[in-house]
Design brief:
CATH superfamily of the largest domain: Ribonuclease Z/Hydroxyacylglutathione hydrolase-like
Strand content: 15-25%
Strand order of the largest sheet: 6-5-4-3-2-1-20
Helix content: 25-40%
Number of domains: 2
CATH topology of the largest domain: Metallo-beta-lactamase, Chain A
Shape: globular
Largest sheet: 7 strands, mixed
Bound molecules: zinc ion
Number of strands: 20
Structural class: alpha/beta
CATH class of the largest domain: Alpha Beta
Distance between the termini: 5 Å
Number of helices: 12
Length: 438
């Protein structure tokens, strides 16, 4: 097997790996970068600045990875055999919009649902025209490769690691994962069931180089949330990602335990309903009378203007108004986003409430997030952070290395590849675009 990491050897986000064996080629993830190509850790990548640039030029500028036979404009007969998408985070699938329509895209069914919802509710555009759905532990063939996906514990729902076998060699790509979330058992199964030893381990290292501190579990987050909800006199606003299903479950359980109504917005209602087909999770409906749906003004106007009106009507039965939320006061836990600021300004009784920030603290630098925080302060609300990472701690990474005993340990999805030497396995440090054999 031959491997090329097109992006990800020295950064988090925009992951893309090409694996070659004989005449077969597969691609692991086709993500959009989080930072500017060639830029530093703090320089955020903004695709809007490039959206009018032709795909060929994006390749020439080094924004899109240079992979033959992958893109829609590529007419060569030498097409890649398939693209494997680990999970529904933009830094792993964001560039599939340029994918050639005849290239098969292997991904989880729930992952496809989440990607479709992102396209319906945000300006993101993706075109996966040939999806092939995968199942944890079930091997499939792609060209000359045998691939076995394993469900992982991650902040993104339906995330997979891939065991890839060809020519008597084994390559394990971890994708993004952790072991302190609600899918810990999936991770344990992966450690027990996946074959070993492996010839190469492509291991994510998001947490490498971050301060070593106690990492709370998702259950710890739920406990802290219960405490906050019980101690706060007014409404509690929660800023968390709607697609972080583990966090939505923590919030719902905390709301139920503290006898608060959980108010989610229309977009979140659609997410929970879609994912509800694959997991037992709370969603608006007769089984969950303590969930109500709020209709944010800007979102509804966008759906109305862009011919997506049908999305407006599904949850009208469970609708809650701004006035009703204000009246609930200390009986409400409301999920919010910066785009809902205009709505929040018209809700009463917030002054005795709190804003709980439940995302990676790097986003606090964003102007719209800062406006939300400033607003909460101007209303006299308490501001607090309750969050745990979607990524593995250094101890968990060590467990994976010890379990699979790789001949080559390859850093990916990290800013600190040189730190991988601490794991006690032979590290292969490469640059983006540099090929090496397994
Ligand atoms: Zn990622
Ligand atoms: Zn992720």
């Amino acid at each position: 097997m031959n491997l090329t990491i097109h992006r990800g050897t020295h950064e988090i986000g925009g992951t893309c790996v090409e694996v070659v064996h004989g005449s077969s080629r597969i691609i692991l993830d086709l993500g959009m970068p989080l930072i500017n190509p060639g830029g530093g850790e703090g320089e955020e990548f903004n695709f809007r600045l490039h959206k009018d640039t032709a795909g060929v030029d994006l390749v020439a500028q080094g924004i899109l990875p240079d992979v033959a036979g992958l893109y829609e404009w590529d007419t060569s007969a030498n097409r890649v055999d398939g693209v494997l998408i680990s999970h529904a985070h933009l830094d792993h699938y964001g560039f599939t919009r340029f994918l050639h329509p005849e290239v098969a895209c292997y991904l989880g069914e729930a992952t496809k649902k989440l990607i479709d919802l992102t396209c319906l509710f945000t300006p993101a555009e993706v075109s996966i025209s040939r999806p092939v759905y995968i199942a944890s532990g079930t091997q499939f063939s792609c060209g000359e490769f045998s691939v076995t996906p394993y469900l992982m514990d991650h902040a993104g729902f339906d995330a997979y690691a891939f065991m890839i076998e060809a020519g008597g060699k084994r390559l394990l790509y971890s994708g993004d994962f952790r072991e302190h979330g609600r899918k810990r058992k999936a991770f344990e199964y992966f450690l027990r069931a996946a074959p070993r030893p492996v010839d190469a381990l492509l291991l994510e290292g998001t947490m490498m180089g971050r301060k070593a501190e106690e990492v709370p579990t998702e259950e710890d987050i739920e406990e802290s949330m219960v405490e906050t909800l019980r101690e706060t006199d007014g409404p509690v606003l929660l800023f968390a990602s709607s697609q972080n299903i583990d966090r939505m479950v923590s919030a719902f359980r905390a709301a139920r335990r503290s006898r608060r109504m959980m108010v989610i917005d229309l977009y979140t209602a659609h997410v929970l309903k879609s994912i509800g087909e694959y997991a037992r999770i709370p969603q608006p409906g007769p089984d969950f009378s303590e969930i109500r749906v709020f209709y944010p003004y800007r979102l509804c106007r966008m759906l109305d203007y862009t011919d997506r009106k049908h999305l407006l009507y599904e949850f009208t039965k469970y609708k809650i108004t701004k006035k009703e939320i204000g009246e609930l006061a200390d009986k409400a836990l409301m999920l919010v986003r910066p785009s809902m600021l205009g709505d929040l300004e018209r809700i009463s009784n917030l002054d005795r409430g709190a804003l709980v920030y439940s995302m990676w603290n790097g986003y606090l630098k964003k102007a719209d997030v800062q406006r939300l925080v400033d607003f909460s302060r101007s209303r006299g609300m308490e501001f607090l952070t309750l969050h745990t990472s979607g990524h593995a701690t250094v101890e968990t990474l060590q467990r994976v290395v010890d379990t699979f005993k790789p001949t080559k340990l390859v850093p990916i999805h990290t800013f600190h590849p040189h730190r991988y030497h601490q794991f006690g396995a032979p590290v292969v440090e490469v640059e983006d675009g540099q090929s090496f054999s397994v």
